[in-house]
Amino acid sequence: MLTQNTLDTLRRLKLTGMGDALERQLAQPDTHDLAFEERLALLVDHEVLHRDNRRLARLLKAARLRVPACVEDIDYRHPRGLERSRMASLASGDWIGQALNLCITGPTGCGKTWLACALGNQACRQGRSVRYLRVPRLFEQLRIAHGDGSYARLMGQLLKTDLLILDDWGMQKVTGPQRQDLMEVIEDRHGRGSTLIASQLPTEYWHEYIGSATLADAILDRLLHGAHRLNLKGESMRKTTGSNAAPVDAS
Fold first, then answer.
1. Choosing a second label site near 249 at 20 to 30 A (CA), which of 24, 35, 74, 225?
2. pTM of the shown model
3. Which of 95, 97, 94, 71 is nearest to 84 (CA)?
4. Element (H or E) spanning 102, and its range?
5. What is the DSSP letter of 133?
6. Where is pLDDT greater, at 68 or 22?
7. CATH of 65-241, one of 3.90.226.10, 2.30.30.40, 3.40.710.10, 3.40.50.300
């Protein structure tokens, strides 16, 4: 009865990890031979692990990454200009801590989206907030937010995100209102959060893609100054490996 009261109290205190670990200890007689301090340490370790796992699940759910990818599965065999040392540096997340940006460009099928999601997954594992959005979807969300009065709340959410992933950059022409919204997003995040851009369009054409010279200059100055760049090359990994045997990062 005393043990059950303890379990109930742990769960009421939201110490679920400790409660589960205590139940396992009670079911495993071998742990009874451990000293009190050792058993307590095991309970605390399980609680920390439980909280870390819950936090990671929450961050990944909020990130809404397009594909399940992780940096450990990056394929370096395909000749596309990826260097292990460079990817290890990006995987460390230091650039996110410094609120720097990353631009991944290259032809279709070379793995831009997959790499972006792998770095997003890594950032979540490091306890950072991430949000993945295709640029057309971002513009649509901002348009709706203007209409229903949720614009300030959406902008606040984007500002608080440690890593904002914008995929399919440059896929369609930008309208005047979209250009202004993009400026507001980039300006808000400049020096406060990192933005990862994934695009088939080489950076030298981004000015033309954005349109208005004044806003394009301002947006690109904030996006590209001091930014890390990955310029992928080579044929589509989907073509070279075949549709039924595509490597994990061919997207």
1. 225
2. 0.82
3. 71
4. strand 102-105
5. E
6. 68
7. 3.40.50.300
